[in-house]
Every structure is written in structure tokens, then in C-alpha cells.
Amino acid sequence: MKTCFKHLTAAFLLAAPTGPTAAPLDLLTPGGTIIVDDVTFSGFSFLDGVSTAPLSANRFDVSGSSGGSSVTLTYMIDPSINVVAGEAFEFNSSFGATVGGGSTRRINSVTLRMSGFSRIGDSFIEFGSTAPFLSFSNSLAGGDAFDMASLAMLSSFDFDFFAQGESFGAGASATLSEFFVVLGFDSAFVPPVSSVPLPAALPLMLGGIGLLGFAARRRRAV
After folding, report:
1. 66: burial class by Cβ within 10 Å (0-12, 13-18, 19+)?
2. What is the DSSP letter of 122?
3. Residue-wise pLDDT tens digits, 184-215
4. What is the mean pLDDT of residues 156-179?
5. CB-count exposure of residue 99 (10 Å: 0-12, 13-18, 19+)
6. Phi and psi angles of residue 125, each rounded to the nearest 5 degrees, phi first
7. N or C: which end of the chain has fewer CB within 10 A?
8. Distance CA 90, CA 188 (A)
């Protein structure tokens, strides 16, 4: 009986739907997607701007995660962008987010946040977007900075953002290693019952388990 239940558990785990939640940005730009809960991110783009050393999409790893009523895309840069005296960087990126047709929740906010950054001397790092308008520039040596905008209960959302940084003078530097785009929702994600399809052989497995139990009871009765 224990063996039967182990097989049953394994069948449920294998039947649970999964989707990619992490990928290098250069693999996402040709049409790749990241799926987190009921949200599909697609239509990724990346454009290097005025940079002292050209940036490339393969330096960016993008991963998705969820927590409560939000879904986060995390951009990790490896190696980190580091500009010293007289150097600068600039890039633009975008993606589209779509809530699955079977979901009732809607996107009601977007937050752009940096946490992996630092600066020394006369330098800056700036993040922003135009629709909705988001903009912030770090004024501390490092830490956390963010800006948020409310949205009108959307089932799909296209987001374009930019980042830039520059250092001036001897001894100045600015470093960026990670940043986050957070979509907020009007309610928490609840997986629908239909999201875990029954394996084709599951009814037969359940019937077999029932017969085993019936036979065991008859042996005890005898």
C-alpha cells in the first residue's frame, strides 16, 4: 500500500504544469518567455546605448518569482556594470506581461527597484520609464531605491524602461549588479483546480488501490 501511495504522489508531481522561470536575456529576446503563476512575460528586448564598453544581453540573467499579490522579474548582471572616471553606460529594455485567461486577478501597479548598486565620488546611476512615468537616481553610496506607479486593473501590460550611469573625476565610480521589476495585483494568486490535470492512468490507479484495500479487508474478515 505504501508503495502504491508513493507512485500516486509521484504521478501528481509529474502532472503538475511547469514553466520556465529563469533565462538569459539573450535567449529571451528572440521570442522566449518566462512564466510565473498565471503571468506570462514575453516580447523581451534589449538595446545598448551610449556605453564606454558595449553591453550585451548575455550579461543579463532574468528570473521570475512570486509572493503574495505580486510577481517579480529580477535582472542579475554578470559581470556587474562598473564605470570609473569618465566612463558611462546606458541601456533600454522592455517586455510584455499577460495574465492567463483563466485568472480573475488584474495588474494594478508596477515598481522599479534597485538594490545591488554602489557609487563612489562624483557619479550616479539612474532608472526610469516613460509609460508609466518612473524615475529615480541614487544619491547614497548604495542601498535600495525604487519608484512605483498605479495601473488601471490591466490583464496585459507592456513595460519599457531604461538605466544609465556615469562617473566624473578621479576616484569616482558607479556599479550596478541587479535590479527588479515588480508587478502588483488586486488579489493573491490561487491555482485553479484545473491547473493540475489528472494523468490518463490515474483512474485505473485509484481503482487498483481500492481493490487492494477491499482484498485486504476480506483477508482480515476470514
Report:
1. middle
2. S
3. 999 999 877 654 454 555 455 555 555 445 44
4. 93
5. buried
6. -130, 130
7. C
8. 35
Q: How many CB atoms lie within 10 A of CB 75?
A: 21
CA–CA dist 74, 79 (Å, integer): 15
Nearest to 92 by CA among 30, 46, 29: 46
- 10 Å CB burial of residue 31 (0-12, 13-18, 19+) is exposed
Q: How far apart are CA 162 and CA 12, in angstroms?
A: 42
Q: Grid coordinates in use for 137? A: 537616481
- Residue 127 Cα distances to 15, 122, 193, 195, 206, angstroms: 41, 17, 40, 37, 55
Rounded Cα gap, residues 38 and 191, in angstroms: 8
In whole angstroms, what is the distance from residue 14 CA to residue 4 CA? Answer: 15
Q: Is the separation of the CB atoms in 122 and 86 below 8 Å?
A: no
Its pTM stands at 0.77
Amino acid at residue number 152: A
Residue 147's region, left for phi above 0, alpha for psi from -120 to 50, else beta, is: beta
Distance CA 113, CA 138 (A): 11
Q: How many residues does the chain have?
A: 222
